[in-house]
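Reopening this ticket.

The earlier resolution said the output was attached, but the attachment link was broken on my side. Pasting everything inline this time so it's all in one place.
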Amino acid sequence: MLLLSTVSWTVDKHLCMGRVMDVSFFMDAEDCGMEAAMDAMSDQLTQNQCCDNESFTVTGQDDLKLTWFDLDLEHRIFLIAFSQTYLELFVPLKELPVSNEKYPPPILVKDIHVLDQVFLI
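Inline output:
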C-alpha cells in the first residue's frame, strides 16, 4: 500500500478514430500504423488527423510524516488492540493443550469392528 501511494504513475493511451488501440504504463503506447499512412498522404489530409495520443500522470504523495497525535482516539485504540492480538499469535506455548484431558474415553464393552465384521485391509 505504501509503495502504490508514493510512486508516480504515467499512463499513455493511443486512440485511433476515438477507439483505444493501446495502453502503456511505463513507456510510450504503440501506434496503430495509421501515422505512417498519414505521413505518405500528408499533402491531402493535413488538418484531418484520425490518431491521437493521450497521457496522464498520477503523482504519488511526498509527505509521509505521520505522528501518533494525528490519529483519532478510536484509531489509536484499534491500532493498539490489533498489534497486541497480532503479537500474541507468535508467543510460544509452554505445553500443548490436551483437548480431552477432563473427559476420559468411553469404556468399550464389546468390540464393534468384530460385531459388524468391518476390518481394515
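Reporter confirms the inline version is readable. The first strand starts at residue 9 and ends at 16. The first helix runs from residue 2 to 6.
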